[in-house]
Write a structure and sequence with these properties.
Blueprint lengths: L2 H8 L16 E7 L9 H8 L2 H4 L2 E7 L3 H10 L4 E4 L1 H11 L3 E8 L4 E5 L15 E4 L5 H12 L8 E4 L4 H8 L5 E5 H9 L5 E2 L12 E6 H6 L1 H20 L1 H11 L11 H18 L15 H13 L18 H4 L4 H9 L3
Parallel strand pairs: 1-2, 1-3, 6-7, 6-8
Antiparallel strand pairs: 3-10, 4-10, 5-8, 5-9
Helix pairs in contact: 2-10, 2-11, 8-12, 10-11, 10-15, 11-12
């Protein structure tokens, strides 16, 4: 089956997509996501597949759970994944310390996503109050552990001052906090949305001012893959940018498209307004992390700034995670950024508005 046929078979509105001149074979790509639970909260990875945008770009993308950011790094370095979505902090630490050849090529989430939460009635009011407490993280190899280290150091403490526990993702982590198996938990905005929707009330500890201007999820690949496959990176980035424009225009359609692509994650009754409200709240939390709640549809999606990577490095130096910064240009590339947004935004907007 040619590429147009695949689009028609996989996408309900394929006729609305621009016709493709090339009917050649699709390029297979493995895309690892730093999560154990590939749910509706990762629209930047799953939505381009659900909407046929990867196929439109000539890519056959397998989106797979990669557990944690540290695990995604290993998948990339071993060649078991071609591209990976991960929090930049753990990657930057390994890049500086071990000189691993991983480069960020697309900034996905442009705001900090990590949060420290406690039960509403907890006496803990700030990071300083965590001393001697049990603190849960979703995964010991995730960016949440680095986030905790940094905030403890800013408060004059270290991990030696808390008991660090891995509580997993989803319900197990919610229960651990509610039952007070842990006194506090480091999680992320999408996780908090799911937590509250599931009926678990939490209170977020105060944020530092600069957390709303820092990358929290980026796309990475090895230097070798970047050098050998510039067309693949440009196409994958463009599919991601298209999906972002669709998401901004019609978040509800994005949820329903996810249900169609991943029926095992869809509710039994897709007309249930509560089910829609639940997943819509999760996806909107991710839009905030992406900056998609405020940035215009014609923003330069995927583009990166050296100043933000300088901020990340300074944060890691202050947290005692790296001895000193390296040139921020050794951490990322904008080589493909101009190509990410080379598409007709009005076509995507119309698809989103008219999606059935």
């Amino acid at each position: 089956m040619g590429r147009l046929g695949i689009l028609a078979a996989s996408c309900g509105f394929a006729k609305a997509l621009p016709l493709l001149a090339d009917n050649g074979p699709l390029r297979k790509i493995t895309y690892a996501v730093a999560t154990a639970d590939l749910n509706v909260g990762y629209p930047y990875a799953t939505l381009p597949k659900a909407l046929g945008y990867y196929q439109q770009e000539g890519l056959d993308v397998a989106v797979v759970p990669g557990q944690s950011s540290a695990a995604v790094a290993q998948l990339l370095l071993s060649g078991r994944a071609d591209v990976g979505l991960a929090q930049p902090d753990p990657i930057v630490i390994q890049r500086v310390k071990l000189k691993i050849p991983l480069i960020s090529f697309y900034a996905v989430c442009r705001r900090g996503t990590n949060r420290i939460v406690v039960n509403p009635d907890s006496p803990i009011q700030s990071v300083r109050d965590l001393k001697g407490k049990r603190v849960g993280v979703n995964d010991l190899g995730s960016g949440s552990a680095t986030y905790l280290r940094a905030h403890l150091k800013q408060a004059g403490m270290s991990l030696n001052d808390v008991q660090l526990l891995s509580v997993g993702y989803g319900t197990p982590s919610f229960v651990a906090l509610k039952n007070k198996s842990v006194d506090a938990e480091v999680t992320f905005t999408g996780g908090i949305a799911r937590q509250r929707i599931a009926g678990y009330a939490v209170r977020i500890l105060p944020l530092t001012p600069d957390e709303m201007d820092q990358y929290s999820y980026n796309l990475f690949a090895t230097q070798s893959f970047l050098a050998k496959n510039p067309d693949v990176l440009a196409k994958l980035g463009r599919a991601t940018a298209k999906a972002t424009v669709f998401l901004i225009t019609n978040p509800e359609a994005a949820v329903r498209a996810f249900w169609k692509q991943y029926p095992d994650r869809a509710p039994k009754d897709r007309s249930d307004p509560k089910a829609l409200a639940t997943d819509l709240a999760i996806i909107k939390a991710q839009m905030v992390d992406m900056g998609a709640d405020q940035l215009p549809v014609d923003f330069a999606w995927g583009s990166q700034q050296a100043a933000i990577f300088e901020k990340i490095e300074n944060y890691l130096v202050n947290a005692g995670q790296i001895p000193g910064p390296i040139a921020p240009t050794d951490l990322f590339t904008n080589a493909f950024a101009a190509q990410y947004n080379q598409f007709d935004h009005s076509v995507i907007i119309n698809q989103a508005r008219n999606w059935k």
